[in-house]
Fold this sequence. Notes:
With about 375 residues, the chain is of the alpha+beta class. It is built from eight helices and 20 strands. The chain has a nine-stranded antiparallel β-sheet with strand order 2-3-4-8-9-12-17-18-19. It has a four-stranded mixed β-sheet with strand order 1-11-10-20, with no helix packed on it. It has a three-stranded antiparallel β-sheet with strand order 5-7-6, with helices on one face.
Amino acid sequence: MTGHPVRTGLVPAPITVPITAPTTAPTTAPITAPTTAPITVPITVLTGTALPTAAWSAWSCVVRLVVSDPSALRPAAADLQALMNRVERAASRFQVSSELSRANANAGRPTVVSRTLVELVTTALGAASQSSGAVDPTLGADLDRIGYDRDISLIGDSESAVRPASPFRPSWRDVGLDPTFGLLTVPRGCALDLGATAKAQTADWAAAQLARRYACPVLVEIGGDVAVAGDKTDWQLTVAERNGDHGQQITVRGGGVATSTTTVRRWRRGADLVSHLIDPATGSPAAGRWRTASVAADSCVHANTCSTAAIVLGDEAMSWLTEQRVAARLVDRAGQVVTLGGWPQDQPPGDAARVQRHLVRTWTC
Length: 365
């Protein structure tokens, strides 16, 4: 199946990226945000952009919404906020009242959950299957153990060393999910964390919903996870490792882009610098060859699954990404860049500065 081409703004001919059909996310959103939702978080309408753009902070990330119809910007922003609030109530690991927190506290017994959480867990298990367990939703207890037990904005360095991981680890295959009756059973001895896929799935849902509702092209970015929908085929993105870094401009014709990195969301525990990206095989932060992976795929969920798996897989990532038929940009621990699957080569900073078609600057957070 021919997927979504990716090219730089400096190359006149598109580079076709063959992409397999998505296996981890539904093509349509299973939930619908209310059409009269109020704006719950103040937004900033950006000036000097080629298309109407709004930005605000949520989930300890920058959220950006780009639409082609100026009249759709504020109502679409309200709808996106409503959807994100719904996902947070369902899947937050830090809100004790969330459905996921109730299911984690009830580990070993079935918990009734909403359709929203059923879909989010279904996607997370699909990502685990697709990546052969490299992207694993059962790492909540390991994240707590290394200190990621609250919102990232509240985490500081600690003199306490990280406790060793338990040798007895439930598998993602042990998660019980009955979508018909809405029953979720978290295995005893672990907790679910959907952070690797829920943010990306929300971006996919929102882009698809808003493009249909407002009959215009839409781009949604949530903390470096980008999804586009509609008939626009020349979205310009600048992809960077961190806020303020020099980035690379790419053109995205559809689907999604995601970046996973160990250079942000990290803190010290004792003598160790730890990050939020856990290797399921060890229960400890991934310490392989790659520090950052950016992927373009047919959906944001697929891109995020691949970028997260690449960090975990290390030396095996390149062959696995090739099998996934996605475009990827990998940065190793020394800063050397490797591209594959049609991702364009980096341009020198002077050349990139001459390109004036940037719409969205995206980095992971």
